[in-house]
Amino acid sequence: MKTMLRLFWLCCLLPSLVLAQEGGGEGEGEAVDPNKPVISYFSLDPEIITNYITTNNEMGYIRIKIEVMVNNAGDLALVQKHEPLIRDTINDVLGKETVEHIRSLKGRDIIRQECQDKVNERLLKETGKTIIRELIFTNYLYQ
């Protein structure tokens, strides 16, 4: 029983000893650069689902999950405030895309970049600065 108790305490203390040897947690003892951006992410929830026109003038639909990368927490609050504007801009871009763009890998990246550019353009008019560092498609489905 004594051996089991000693083993238990050893297992409990070992992680804290290792952290103490390595200098503690993350970022302790390191100089923080105030000019370095602190990247944050915002998830557009729910996913964007919209229609596009196929070659036979039929409607197809596309469903995209989007994460927005910004340089700091202040910009994150602006993205959250202007989420309806961002969604509208992305819907406009997707609704005008061709079926060839939507269904190809190269086209997907072109669409992503165009969405990012248009959203930044509209946010620049509203806020006076470029906010979005990257617009990332984390889920991309079409039919």
Layout of strands and helices, then pairs:
Blueprint lengths: L1 H21 L17 E14 L5 E12 L2 H9 L1 H13 L3 H5 L1 H23 L4 E11 L1
Antiparallel strand pairs: 1-2, 2-3
Query: Low-confidence spans: pLDDT under 50, at least 5 residues?
Result: 16-26
- Number of helical segments? 5
Question: What is the rounded distance between the termini?
Answer: 64 Å
Lateral arrangement of strands in the main beta sheet: 1-2-3
* Proportion in β-strands: 25-35%
Radius of gyration: 23 Å
Largest sheet: 3 strands, antiparallel
How many beta strands in the DSSP annotation? 3
| Mass-distribution shape | elongated
Order of helices and strands: HEEHHHHE
Mean pLDDT: 82
Helicity, in percent? 40-55%
Structural class: alpha+beta
Q: Could you characterize the architecture of this molecule?
A:
- By secondary structure, this protein is of the alpha+beta class.
- Helices cover 50% and strands 26% of the residues.
- A hairpin with a 5-residue loop joins strand 1 and strand 2.
- The radius of gyration is 23 Å and the shape is elongated.
Short characterization:
The chain has 143 residues and is of the alpha+beta class. 50% of the residues lie in helices and 26% in strands.
Keywords, please?
143 residues, alpha+beta, 3-stranded antiparallel beta sheet, 5 helices, 3 strands, 50% helix
